[in-house]
Amino acid sequence: MSTHLLGLIVALPLAGFLFNGILSTRLGGERLNETAVNLVACALPGVSFVLTLVCFMQLETSGKPLIEATYTWATIGGQGFEVGFWFDRLAAVMTLVVTGVGTLIHVYSTGYMHGDKSHARYFAYLNLFLFFMLLLVLGRSLLVMFVGWEGVGLASYLLIGFWFDDPAKAAAGKKAFITNRIGDAGFLIGMFLLWGAFGTLDMDAINAGFLGPKAPAVSASLVGLMLFIGACGKSAQIPLHVWLPDAMAGPTPVSALIHAATMVTAGIYLVARMSGIYSHAPEASMVVAAIGGATAFFAATIAVAQTDIKKVLAYSTVSQLGLMFVALGVGAYAVAIFHVVTHAFFKACLFLGSGSVIHALGGEQDIRKMGGLARRIPVTFVTFAVATTAIAGIPPLAGFFSKDEILWFAFASSQGGAAWLWALASAASLLTSFYMFRLLWLTFFGASRMTPEVEHHVHESPLSMTGVLVVLALLSAFGGFIPVVHYLEPMLPLPAVPESLHHLEGTLVIVAVVLAFGGLFAAAWFFAGTAQRAARVRETFAGVYRWLANKYYIDELYEAALGRPFTWLSDRVFLQLGDRTLIDGALHAMAASARRGAAAFGALQAGSLHRYALYAVVGVLAAVLWSLRHG
Amino acid sequence: MDRSQFLLWVSLALFSIGLLGLIVRRNLLVMLMCMELMLNGVNLSLVTFAQRGGSVEGAVLVFLIFIVAASEIAIAIPIVLLLVRDRLTLDAGAYTDLKG
Amino acid sequence: MDNVLMLQTVLWLPLAGMFALLVVPSGAHDAVRRLSFWTMVLQFVLVAVLYARFDPAAPGLQFATRVPWIVDWGVYFSLGLDGYNVLLVLLTAFLGPIVVAGSFTAITKDVKLFYAMVLLIQFAMMGTFLAQDLFVFYLFWETMLIPMFLLIGIWGGERRIYATLKFVLYTAFGSILMLAAIIYLVLATQQAGGAASFAFADLMRVKLPLDAQLWLFAAFGLSFAIKVPIFPLHTWLPDAHVEAPTTGSVILAGVLLKMGTYGFIKLGFPLFPDATQLFTPTIMVLAVASIVIGAGLALVQDDIKKIIAYSSISHLGYVMLGLVSLNLIGIQGAIVQMVSHGLTAAGLFLMIGMIYERCHTRDLAAYGGLARALPVYSVAFMLLTLASIGLPTTSGFTGEFLVLLGAFNNAWTQHLGGHSFALVLAVLAASGVVLGALYMLRFAAKFLYGEAKVPHAPVADLVLRERLILGAVLVAVFWLGLFPDGAMRKTEPAAREYQLLVRTSRLPAVATAQAGVDALAPAAMPGTKP
Which of A154, A200, C293, C326 is the 20 to 30 Å CA partner of A350? Predict the structure, then answer.
C-alpha cells in the first residue's frame, strides 16, 4: 500500500541539518542559541520516530509493505532508476532502532556537547547522518540505498574529524572515508552485475528474481561476494576493519550512534535485505561466515590488550559485527538482525557510559588511570555494569538471547553450520566476556589510579546524559524479550536444523552461559584489587601482548604494502619518469630538433653577397639543366 | 662563323666575364661594374637576335633594359656610398649583417 | 523572438560585445567589467530560453541556420542545436558570466584587452559547439587559440611564455593534421556524391576504405586527444593551468577541454566507425590510464592548481571510457560527466583563485586550518570536493556511476563471450572512486584542517559576489546530481544516434545491409544491453 509518511521520516532530519547548518553555524552567523539548536535537532528525529511507529502500526494492520514512490532519477533507453521507499518488517525493525536510539543519542549529546564552540555544527552533522541512514534503510532500490550508504560515510568523515584542529583526528576521518570507499567499489560492481541481469535495482524485484523458478543471468555467489565487500567496508570486517578503532577520535556520542548502533550495521542490513541472493549462494555465504568468525575472534584478542576505554569498545563492536556476519553466513538472517537490535542497546549504552566517564574525568580515556569510580558516579556505573553483563551474554539480559541463537545456528544450521565456526564464535564470546569485565573492573573498581586534579573533578553527568543511560540500560536488560526473530520469520525464515542435532541445543546453551561466567570470574580474578596477576601475565607474555596492543601491526602493513608503494609509484614513475623525463623529454627533444634544424638553415644565410650570388648561379644552372633534360 | 654567331659569342663572353667577376671580386664598385657588364652582354645578344630575326621587339627591350639598369645603378651607387661612409671600406666581406 | 534568430544572437553577442568594448575608454575599468558581464548574462538568458524550448523528440537540428558561404567548395555557414551540443552550449553560456564576475578583482592591468579576449573566446567556443559544417567548425576551433594564447601569455604567472607556447604549439600541431584529414575527407565526398560538401550530415554518409579511415581517424583523434587531454598527451595541461590566470583556468577546465570530447562524440568516432571499432581497446586502455595515472599524479602534487589539473585528466578519462563503451547508459553518463567536470573543475579553480588573491601562494604546505579561519570558503570548498569525488546527490556521481555502469555491462557481455580484457579495465576504472577520494581528501586535509596557517593573515572570508558565483555553480552541481533526468532526456536521441553511427560499418560495399538491420533493432528489454 502507498503512503507519504516514509518520505517525511527521511526528510525531517534533513530539514534539521539545513536549518541548523545554515542558521546556527558560523556559515549563517550563529543566529540561534544552544537551547534552540538542541530543540530543533532533537525534536525532528523524535517526530521521525513517532512517524515510524505509525508506519509500524499500518504495517501490522495491512500486512503488506508500505511503498512510496517519489520521482524518477533518470530514464535511459526505456529503463528507469526510480527513487522510492519501502517499509516492510525488516525495514520497520531497522528504522525503529535508527530513529529510536538515534533520538536518544541526540538527547545525550545535548549534555555531552554543552559548551563546545562548534555545538551547532555537531548537531547539523548528526541530523545529516540520520537523514542518510534513513535513506539507507528505507530505500527501495540499491541505488537509493547506495546514496544513503555513501552519505553516512560522509557524515562519519565529518563527525570523526569534528575537532579538526587536531590533524590526527582529521586524518582518522579521512581513513574512514577511504576504507569505506574501497568497500564501495565492490558494492558498485555488485550493483552493475545486478543491473545487467535484471534491468532494475529494486531490491524486492531482485530478491524475487533469485527466489523465482528461473535461474537468473548472473551468479548469486559472485554478486553476493561483491556486495559483501561493500559490507566489509561499512561494517569493519577483515580486511577493511582498520578505520573503526581510529574513528574513536570523534565525540563519544558519535561513536555510539554511528560506530556502534547504526552505520556499521548497514552491512548486516544489506546482506539480510538481499537474503534472496545469499540463500542461493552457498560459496558466498561461506565466505561471509568465515570472515565474520575470524573477525570476531581476531578483534576480541586485540580488545584484551587495549588501554583506551573507547578502543576496547571499538574492537568489541568489530567483534560483535563479526558474530552477526556469522549468523548471516549460516542463513540465520533474522537472528543477525536480532543481535543488531540488542547490540544497539547495550553498545550504545556502553559507549555513552564511557562518554559519561570521560566527561566525569575531564577528558581522561586511559583505563590505567581510572579506578574506584563505582561509588562516585553510581548511575554511570550501574548502567555500564548492566550493559557489560548484557554483552557478556549472561542470562537473562538481552545479549544472552541474541548471542545464544547465533552460536546455536553457527553450530547447527543446515546452511553452513559447523563445529569450527561455533568454536571460533564461542571463543570470541568468552574473550568478550573477559575483556568487558576487565574494562568494568579497571574503570570502576579497585583503588583509584587517577591523578589528583582529575579525582577532584569527578562528578556525575547531567540528567540529559544519565537519563538516556538508564533507558538504554533497561533496554539492554529486557530487550532480549522483544520477539524480533519471530516478527521477522515470515520474510526471513530461520534455517533448518538437522534432526540429529536438536538435542544438543540445551547443552550448547549451558556451554555459552558457562563461558560467559567464566569470563566474568577470570576478569575478576586477574583485575581485582591492584591487578597484580594481570601485570605478571603481561610480563610473561610480553611479546604476545605487544602484538595484541599494536593490533597485529596491520595498519603498518597496509601503509608499507599499499600506501607507500602507490605514492612512490606516483611520484617516481608517473611524475618524474613518465611525465617529466619521457613525455616532456620527448616534447622538448622535438622542440630542440626543430630549433637545430632552423639553425642549420640559418647557417646558409652567411651574410656574404658572394655566397648569395653563387647560390643564384647554381640555381639557374640547375634549372637550365633540368629543363634541358625534361623539356 | 657568321656575324651573328660571332656577336653571340661575344655577348656570352661579356656575360661570363661579368659573372665571374661578380663571384670573384670583393670590391663593391667592381662588383657593380661586373653586374653592368652582364647586363650589356645580354643587351648585345638581344640586339643580335632582333637583327637576325628582323623583328624589332629585341631592340625595344634593349631600351627597356637601359632604363632599368640606369635607375638601378643610380640607386645602388648611393647605397654603396652610404654604407661605405660608415664602414670606410669597399670590401664585400665587411657587410654580413644580414646573416641568418 | 524567433528561435533561429535567437540562436544567431547567442553566437554573435560576445563578438558584438568585444567590438563595443573597443569604444569604451581604456581607463573606465568599471564600465568594461559591467559591459562584459551583462553581455554574458544576456547570452545565458537566451541560451536558457532555447534550452527550455529544445524538443528532444523533434528529429534533426533545431533552430538551425544554413547560409551559403563558399558554395563552390560546398561550404555553408551552418549552425544548429542538437542533443550533442545542447548541454555544452548551456554550460558555456552558464560559465560566461561566472568567469567574468570571478575576475573583477583579479585583473588590474590591460583590463579592456582582457575582457575583449574573454568575449572573443566565448564567441569561438560557442561557435565550435554550434557549428554543423566542418569548415565552420575548424575555423572556430582555430580561433579559440589566439585569445587563449594571449590570456595565458599576458596575464599569467612566471613561466607563462613556456606554458602558453607549449599549449598553442601542441594544440596547433594536432590541428594541422586534422586540416589535412578534413581536406581528404571533403574530396572523398566529392568523389562519392559529385559535389564537395563540408556539412556534417553529408560527411557521415561517405564510405571510406579501412586504411583511409585509420589514417583519418588518427589525424582527427590526435587533435581531439590532445585537447581532452588523454594520457599520454596531457603534459601541457598542468603547465597551462598553473601559469594561467584564474579566469584562464576556469575557461580552460570548464569548457575548452570539453571541446576535445565533443570532437570525439560528434566527429571523431561517428565519422570513422570501423577505425573506432579497431581502436576501441587502445582507447579504453588510455582512458583507464588517464583515470588511474591522473589520480596518482594528483596525489603527489604540492601546487594546488596542479592537483586540480591532474584531477581533470582523471575525470575526463571517465568520459572517454563512457564514449567507447557504446552502451547507451555509458554514453549518457559520458555526456553528463562532461558537464559535471566543467562545473566542478570551474568551481574549484575559482576557489583557488579566490584564495590566491588573498594569500598569494599556490604552495599547499603554506596553508592549513582554513576551516577555522574562513568557514564559508571551507564549506563551499568541501562541497565542491565532494562533487569532484562523486558523492551521490552531486553531478559527479551521476556521471561516474552511469559511465561505470555502462562500461561494466559492456565489458561483462564481452567477458561472457570469452574476452575478459575489457572487464579488467572496467574493474580498474571502478577503483578510480577510491583514488579520487585519496587525492582530494589529502588536499582538503592539508588545506582545511590542522593548525591554522594562513599566509598574509588575517584574510577576509568570501564576499557577496564570490558567494553568488559559487552558489550558482553548486546549485547546478546538485541539480544535475539530484534531477538529471531532464537533461538526459534532451541528449538521449543524440546518444542513440551516436551509438548507431559508430556501430554501423561504413566500408565500401558492406555497410547498407548492416545499417538496415541495426535500424530495426528494438528498444531494450530488461536484462539486455540497450
Answer: A154
